[in-house]
């Protein structure tokens, strides 16, 4: 039983191919990261999942239903925070939170007060007077206040200050403990790294990688800084080495995962004084996939 | 106050930016008052060239306290004097509204959106944005005054009076630009600036009415710039020094504007933010309750507008009917509409003909809230919640349907009660009510057009205005444009029976109801099937 099951999902905006055979599977109780740069297709995927727009082809299942046809029934089981939060300027934050909560049903005022306190939101201000960060808080609280099975969060921390980001992470971890499913779209990598069990990377409407962080680490480069007793030479001739800078007895480079062994063997001949190896961060992972050298296929409808 | 020129650097660049951004809005807005002056002047020049007809009219007006209270007394029975009298209230109000809009657009709204911060962090001076907004608006006001003056002279009116009218409009505009810019320093929110400034305008209007020319406290209208427009005595021996009052007031306002602007922080205001309830009332627990919250402000505004309209028409009904009776041209227009009808009924029918489309404007505005709520992405919160699309859409359409009905009833109640008090005559209220309510099917057809466009081609919902404009043209100018009958028949308003002139309710109205429901259902079906964009 999966919460979200997407297969070969395709969506065109006119002639522009927004999603190209996207696959995604989210299991119950999982916090799933969905990352990619702006315009990659994250929001389009989420909007199809929410029944706001139609798919052109492919399969998509949400719980036991179709997100387009069973929209209202499915929405009772989930909550959504849009990436671009626009609220009714004449309503106060408190009114919006209450209203959206009551519409979904099962509204718990105590939970509401708790969240207001956590996020330090003044519910008496009109939405038109809130800053971007405060509008984001209203949307977040409106979603978190509901006791549902699935939370879909589209770049939820934009505009939040670092302190509030911590509060947000605590709340997601609580959801995880309670066995809820979370689909978190983001381009803030540390956030995804800190929260998510699995992730998919999307670029130009295509999923280019899916897996756990362990899986993805396997194909990424490790950064190495080395100090030796002798001058380091010949590194540039080895396979799998990138971004090399050598300064006599000091060298910095990154190396493909499968080449680490041979590179270390080569380095020992210079007498290694110290060696610092950093595992790939999500940032590096991204730079690799979105750097110039990566050439994905772009398909335009004939 | 010490003036540091660095605070104004970049002002001219910003002026050019405003002119570029508003190259359509600016002339478009100022065209309204100019056109109004022009049309009032043309009417009087053409229809009252005969001194005898003017004398009759002046007598009528002077004996009608309602007309004197709302429009002021006639100072001179020349054509120019009548033009000045007729435009002395509506003209300044229009000019003021245009100025309020422009100043808020370029000061507080810009600040609210954070654009001012962007500018101030560059080499643009602290006061440059404010100054550029004022310069552009003042310039536009001067141009407007010039065009008004020239067009009045062009119509053959004396140049002194024409100049006085042009000047007074320029200065009245600048005055409200100054008031709006001061209000923009006070509050953080653009809508609060609008409330404050419009409240000031209403206060001036009330002072003018309470201090009406035949009353005991006529001096009160000296406290209102609307009174100054009157006391300037355009075309009636101009009192040029009155213009000095405007200038003093403008300078005073500008002084405080710059004073406050130089001591406050960007983004802040001086008045505290208004807050609201922390919890939603029970109204807000349903979609229809939310729709009420979204629609009520506009509905209240229209209700007040049409109460006032009803009061004015009720006050003037007898005068106007007499004017009609004494004017052969009007009589010939009226005779087209109904044979042997009571003049009062003809008058009301003519007014309804005009207002029918105005009520439709409300219906369309309310229906198009659907689109604006979608574009502002407000609807997403509801549709991704447990609300089905049709229910959300219908909650808004409901107000587009019921709102015009409320307005029609309120308008006619206001009209007939004032007319009743004033003339002491009994009226058949149910007859009047049915005469206005029979406009509903035609108005609902227009709502249907808006909803159908929303359902199928959401990007083109503004086409509804084109359709309404087209219908207005073929309904108001059929003879003038020599339009053939089948084209005239396209407009739903053609098929509204004139119940006051003896028409009876026919199948036309039923068919229009059917058409309206078909259009609305189609729109709802289209919306259910399309992407939210």
Automatic annotation (TrEMBL), chain A:
Gene3D superfamilies: P-loop containing nucleotide triphosphate hydrolases (3.40.50.300). It comes from the Archaea. Pfam families: ABC_tran, DrrA1-3_C. One of its GO terms (molecular function) is ATP binding. Residues 4-229 form the ABC transporter domain. Belongs to the ABC transporter superfamily. This is ABC transporter ATP-binding protein.
